[in-house]
């Protein structure tokens, strides 16, 4: 797929609310069956900012079959307490271990702007549930995304390349600092290395936000049609694009995998420091140095050094 070159004068594409998204994937999903006990909390209409204690989870017998995830009071119950249709799932997220009261949890986001949190003690069982739910709602078009583990998987409206007139719906998976995508007009694309982005920004108003991802030769616009799962993607992508630790290899990277922090410092010294006496032997103020270092660690691309 051909992508736009970075053009800062280009108007940010907006999602036309009067026209439906172009959905090219098949609505016929594979049949997946699975059952077992899960612990779940009450569904929420906003992101889970706080840790959910173990006492907030209820033990439920859950059955995945015929494109529906049903949860019952116990394994003998006939009538479910509730159900989630696979066709309504827009995102599946796997938080880090011990994020909540159970060692392993996963989140299910639906088109109705609801978030369901499930928990398990067993890593193997949690992985099996995530795999089965993913297979139940991801169409054959995007099945390549299931070949590896992910922190987040789902569908999002996007604009890219030469198709900026109307948003289409693509499938995305996030693993580490790598964002993979499947678009309707082609096979799985070369993954976006988020720590190598030239720009990561949010544009538009609160009702129509656009996440802009700019690489060296392509630009991708992700639309915020559904606010709940979009905010989850936004936070996850921003975190994945940031520095991962204290070593240079874990920082945001530029061309030739050279850390952005190195570019910033060398460029500044070249432009402003070569005429300063003692530039390489006089120490700066420790408190200012620490503040600058912390800013560079968080997001080196947004730091603009000045005298």
TrEMBL record:
SMART domains: PH. GO terms for biological process: signal transduction. Residues 242-307 form the Rho-GAP domain. SUPFAM superfamilies: GTPase activation domain, GAP, PH domain-like. GO terms for molecular function: GTPase activator activity. Keywords: GTPase activation. Residues 31-138 form the PH domain. Pfam families: PH, RhoGAP. InterPro entries: Arf-Rho-GAP_ANK-PH_domain, PH-like_dom_sf, PH_domain, Rho_GTPase_activation_prot, RhoGAP_dom. It comes from the Eukaryota. PANTHER family: ARF-GAP WITH RHO-GAP DOMAIN, ANK REPEAT AND PH DOMAIN-CONTAINING PROTEIN 1 (PTHR45899:SF3), RHO GTPASE ACTIVATING PROTEIN AT 15B, ISOFORM C (PTHR45899). This is ArfGAP with RhoGAP domain, ankyrin repeat and PH domain 1. It comes from Homo sapiens. The lineage of its organism: Eukaryota, Metazoa, Chordata, Craniata, Vertebrata. The gene is ARAP1.
